[in-house]
Amino acid sequence: MTYCLGIKTRDGLIGLSDGRITSGSQLSSARKVTMMGSGSDRFFIMNSGLRSVRDKTLAYLRRDMQKRRGESYSTMLDAVSAFTACLRQVAAEDKESLEASKLHFNLHAIVGGQLAEDREPYMFLVYPEGNWIEVDERTPYLSIGATAYGKPILDRALTYGTDMQTALKLAYLSFDSTRFSSNDVGFPIDMVSYHAESRSWRQSNYDYDDLSEQRQWWNRNLTELARRMPDGPWVETLVPEEMRPRRIAEETA
């Protein structure tokens, strides 16, 4: 399992992927986000699913890009179409034998960037069959892998108008919620950002100790906010009467 998240806001794009690889009882780490192209004409691809399918698909995509003699795709639609063509080719070659070995052909991908003829950044979620959907302003993120745990905070707090600094925090918190509840997701994490106005990319990776301050702050304040939340109607029926004055005393201390 993995956790990959792509966010599109008014400022640009954010990509986050965990680096944990599980195989039976074995744990290792590997980069799950790949930058393709050069200069400002770049785009990222994040994957979940069989590593062998991912590597072969990306190898075919690199071969296709090399045939273009250094020229990048003109638009992100061209790029995602090339990626899906490579994915379908791998499926035609390997899907039958993988399924005969009881392995699912389950590659999912998030592809995002802005190329020379694009009016704005674009981001797509690609399914194993090669079809895709595009992120929109109403739900400005796409996630693959163990998606359930990090979804609530994104649905509650992230909008298309969220500034990039806040969106980066929400991306991390969605990962941290997933990491906390899923043993198959963990550090290190890779993060990329694309600033639309300057058409510039930035990329970095972080390990467990790098984000200890943020993790501790969130745990401490989340607990404190729950304590300070107004009492609900359950107090009168579910809290013993002798405990109620103590709670009031604690809040006024």
UniProtKB/TrEMBL annotation:
Q: What GO CC annotations are associated with the protein?
A: proteasome core complex
Query: What processes in GO biological process is this protein linked to?
Result: proteolysis involved in protein catabolic process
Q: Which Pfam families match?
A: Proteasome
At the top level of its lineage, which domain of life is listed?
Bacteria
Q: Which residues form a coiled coil?
A: none
Protein's UniProt name: Peptidase
Say which species the protein is native to.
Azospirillum lipoferum
Output the lineage of the source organism: Bacteria, Pseudomonadati, Pseudomonadota, Alphaproteobacteria, Rhodospirillales
